[in-house]
Amino acid sequence: MRDRFLRREPLLHKDLIAATVARARAMERQGNGRFHFKLTTNGVLLDEPFIEYSLKNDVLIAMSFDGIREAHDRHRALPNGPPPSTSCAAGSNSCSRPGPIPAS
Asked: Distance between CA 29 and CA 86 in Å, rounded?
């Protein structure tokens, strides 16, 4: 079974993601299917602990950008914060670093 975490910003609900993945992994151990997870995020809330969690739990991360830097910053403006493209680039760079390849 494939499950995707998308719409709005799924990283606002890291606890729900973890609970869903944990339940699915428990079902797998009981022989009740195989689950694949993919999360689509703009990267603003992507942090090192979640990247490590996703590597450990075989949760794929897809980055979503609203086009060129200027368009992305215009559509995703943060109140009193840095341009969102800055956070997205940092999240994307963190995800692209070498890491273990999960077993299939």
From this structure: 40
